[in-house]
From TrEMBL:
Record keyword Signal present: yes
Pfam families (alphabetical): YceI
SMART domains on file: YceI
InterPro entries: Lipid/polyisoprenoid-bd_YceI, TTHA0802/YceI-like_sf
Start and end residues of each Lipid/polyisoprenoid-binding YceI-like domain: 22-190
Keyword Signal: yes
Protein name stated in the entry: YceI family protein
Domain of life: Bacteria
Length: 192
């Protein structure tokens, strides 16, 4: 009787555990981007060219057990070298001292092909909680029979919270660079 009780207890415990599978980022179909208002009238967009992530995704429940990302701050690219160099400087990312920013998921709430990912974002050694909306979550088998997952992460942060404080007041009112930064990340990953 003791053996069967233990076996039943083990079955009940494992039934509640999500069985996530590790995935590798597909760098040629992933983009880590952002958008920020300039002069209060237009959006300046950019992205980061070097990054990696640890992803454990449960294809059955369409949820994440793990999502951790490391982004190389010196790989920022807005299409203008002078601006990129300024963003790498002490006025913004201070890339020499803080070469990486990180995101570590703490929880994920699935809702079909959408969800909410809550976690900690660290920039310049400062960690703050953020919520990212997960949109367009989809899975597919590719031409070689590999399972793939794709999704978009969207969110907003206040750059002042991370000591990215450089700005200039405008003569007619307002500032050169908005405090709000929109995060837009498109991810495609392949099951290991």
């Amino acid at each position: 009787m003791g053996f069967f009780s233990k076996l039943l207890g083990t079955a009940v415990l494992t039934a509640g555990v999500a069985f996530a599978t590790p995935y590798n980022l597909d760098g040629s179909h992933t983009n880590v981007g952002f958008s920020v208002k300039h002069l209060m009238i237009t959006n300046v967009k950019g992205d980061f060219k070097k990054y990696d992530a640890k992803i454990d995704f449960d294809n059955k429940t369409k949820s994440f057990n793990t999502f951790e990302a490391n982004i190389n701050t010196a790989s920022i690219d807005t299409g203008i070298e002078k601006r990129d160099n300024h963003l790498k400087s002490g006025d913004f990312f201070l890339s020499e001292k803080f070469p990486k920013m990180t995101f570590v998921m703490k929880s994920y709430k699935a809702n079909g092909d959408e969800g909410k990912m809550q976690g900690d974002l660290t920039i310049r050694g400062i960690t703050k909680p953020v919520t990212l909306e997960v949109e367009d979550l989809a899975t597919v088998k590719d031409f070689k029979g590999n399972n793939r997952v794709g999704f978009t992460l969207k969110g907003k942060i206040n750059r002042m919270d991370y000591d990215l404080k450089w700005n200039k007041a405008l003569e007619f009112g307002g500032v050169a660079v908005s405090e709000t930064v929109k995060i837009i990340v498109d991810v495609q990953a392949i099951e290991k």
